[in-house]
Amino acid sequence: MLAYLANTLIFIMVGVVISEKALNSLDMYDLFLLVVDYFGITVIRALVMMTFSPILMRIGYGFSWQNAVVAAWGGLRGAVGLALALQVYIDHPLIGGKVLAHTAGIVMFTLLVNATTMKKLLEKLGLSDVSDSKKIAMGNAVRQIKESNHRTLTMLKADRFLADADWDMAERDCEMHNPYMEVEGKHAEETPLLVRLSTCPNCESSVPNEPSPKEFAEMTNDGRVRLIKALKVSYWKQFEHGMLSREAVQALINLADTAMDEEESFIEMDDLQPYWRVPPYLQKLKDKLEQFKQTKPTEHIPPPSNKVLLFMYTVAAHVMFDVVMNILIILNMAPIILELSSDDDAPYMGILNIINYVYCTIYVAEAIWKALAFRRFYFKDYWNLVDLFIVILSIIDIVIDQAADKATGSFSPSILKVAKCLEFCEWVVC
């Protein structure tokens, strides 16, 4: 409604401005230019369609030459062009009057010529023809609605509270006709099947004939569309009964709409595979994590014979050892974050350095304990190698800080100890 009012207001404003300001400045040469502009715009639009038709025919929903003709001829000009021309007239009154008049003339030509002949053009190109399958479907639908109306009215007539109702008016208002079965202004009787007859050239009798290949293709496409619509109804019913999730029904409906718009297309299994197939990069990441993943040492590492090493092996292989170390790693995140976000002259930096030394000692003790307990098997685990690398970096950080005052500059190797959380990830994965 608002769009209609805005369009009406623009047309009225343009009409008033042209009649009062621009109409007096027009002559016969302007009328000639107006006709040239109209034909030029139509030809340019047709040339653009011809230029891009090879691309449009191979992308999206396709683009036939009939559609190109309709798109070129259906380029109607209206409120948008008039609004722009009106703005030109406001900004440049000297030439804006002719621009507004020419724009209004082109709009008038397209509305009087293109718009009024569009129906004939569609009929000539065969784009407005109704296929036999659509006529059959419409006839069946109208018949079912009529039967439902008749049953409902019969039931209501038996209601004693509605005895004073005007049933003739009710039946007249509920009457429905098939728009595809009109003959000479009267509605013909709808039949479930359409029987097409041809006249025999020999005996001049009417004999049934078969649909043409084009009509067969139209009926096949209509059947495909109706089947996809039935699938969409089924998807919504499954969603209502809790058999499909909201995301699943949205994905299926989108696939159905896409298949419905494309010729000879249907919902294939290949269209559904992207919704459950793991992306290749995630699969590679999963494979790498599986390579890094290691089972518990007690499952494949033999225990040592030495009593001391056996005790260390038992402690390192116990689940509580990993629990305690992971708790310490989580607690170590707080001082690391505080150290990275603070200035070098902060009053609590000394306490943070002491905490750093304590945790570095704990990590070194853990690495030595595991190396002695698991022996050469310790160096065959990727997680242990990463842990050992971080421990070495922590030691280097402390040595550099002690040997030269803040020789590392703005970069502190202690930031790499954040990677100790990978050990926590290892514990979760395993």
Q: Biggest sheet, open or closed, and with what strands and sense?
A: 2 strands, antiparallel
Instruction: Name the strands of the widest sheet in spatial order.
Output: 1-2
Instruction: Give the termini distance in whole angstroms.
Output: 64 Å
Principal-axes shape call:
elongated
**Binned strand content:** under 5%
Give the tally of β-strands: 4
Overview of the structural elements:
The chain contains 17 helices and four strands. The protein is mainly α. The protein has a two-stranded antiparallel ribbon with strand order 1-2. β1 (182-183) and β2 form a beta hairpin. α15 (349-374) packs antiparallel against α16. The longest helix has 33 residues, at 93-125. The protein is elongated. The protein starts with a helix and ends with a helix. Mean pLDDT is 77; it is low at 183-193 and 407-416. It is a multi-pass membrane protein. GO terms for molecular function: monoatomic ion channel activity; potassium:proton antiporter activity; sodium:proton antiporter activity. Residues 320-422 form the Ion transport domain. Pfam families: Ion_trans, Na_H_Exchanger. InterPro entries: Cation/H_exchanger_CPA1 (IPR018422), Cation/H_exchanger_TM (IPR006153), Ion_trans_dom (IPR005821), Volt_channel_dom_sf (IPR027359).
